[in-house]
Amino acid sequence: MKILFLVYHGFSEYSGITKKIRYQVKGLKENGYDVRLCYYDFAENGHRCRYVDGKLIKDYGTGNWAAFRQRLDYQCVYDYCIREGIQLVYARSFMNANPWLIHFFKKLHKAGIHAVTEIPTYPYDQEFNKSTKWDVLLGFWIDKCFRRRLYKYMDAMVTFSDAQEIFGQRTINISNGVDFDSIPLYHCQQPMANGQLHLIGVAELHSWHGFDRVMAGIGEYYSHQPSAISHQPSVFFHVVGGVYPYRMKVDYTPVIEKYHLQDKIIFHGAMFGKELDEVFNQCQFAIGSLGRHRSGITVIKTLKNREYATRGIPFIYSETDSDFDNQPYVLKAPADESPIDIQQIIDFLNHFDMKPEEIRRSVEPLQWKFQMKKVVDDVFTPQ
Questions:
Q1: Of 182, 189, 285, 300, whose CA is between 20 and 30 Å from 29?
Q2: Greater confidence, 151 or 13?
Q3: What is the pTM of this model?
Q4: By C-alpha distance, which of 165, 119, 182 is closest to 369?
């Protein structure tokens, strides 16, 4: 079977989205499918181009007109699908529904080519507000106007939520997956018995990650135990990932300054590979999303939870995730604005004895090759 994995943007080595897409493509290939990756990016000469597996299929040129054309010209992708005998187009939503994209998928439908669109986060409307940049907000409103018309030409919507219907189309419910080959097993080099608790949170930071709740929790932990603190672990929070200056100024700096946590919160910036592994191995506990309620989401299967479990490190989060809610290596935080209870984490770890390899084994069914096969099987099984 020939599958075109369609992405509406380019890639970055530091991006978790880039890694996820590559793991999904790998997962499809592990099932024996012939998979081609189509994406949009800039060439070395500055031209805006569309590629399939690194081979140019359309050069849009430079300037404003080229930027406009790449958003509405999908004829090159359609021609490629017909020429190469593509049987399924797996598209990843970029919240970019518009009349030209509708026309493209309508033509695919008429040609008998199956199509699904993955919605990475659902619902997503609450993520946009008056503070959103005007150009992003404009794109969102265009998407909102046309998304139901677009998705009627899909076989289904792929979602990591429990939703049974999205924008009038049926869903295929899968979990965010993991790639065992790319995530090494965690090896704790500094047990809490040494008198220090090191927490790690990995994310390209947004408000829904709720890391400010952890910082406030550390502040409360110190302020409520001034006399007994020598008998308790010193607590540090390692934040790995990009932080927008606005987010730092509004969400994190006020909390750090309020509780005088300058030496307790360590911002490492974006990291990957051995450098990231070394930070993980310094820590004993990981931080998942703690603010999904801020964007109106209660049920979601985040990639981060699965990556933590694949490494074999215990972690905390606040949303509903049926793959992990009852796992013994997980702590659930309330989905509210309360500071995270650091003492609860300490007590949990004092009685925790699961080995990293045991945690890792629990997520074997969540590997991408199994999750992506669910999509293909569903599409090609008579409804």
A1: 300
A2: 151
A3: 0.85
A4: 182
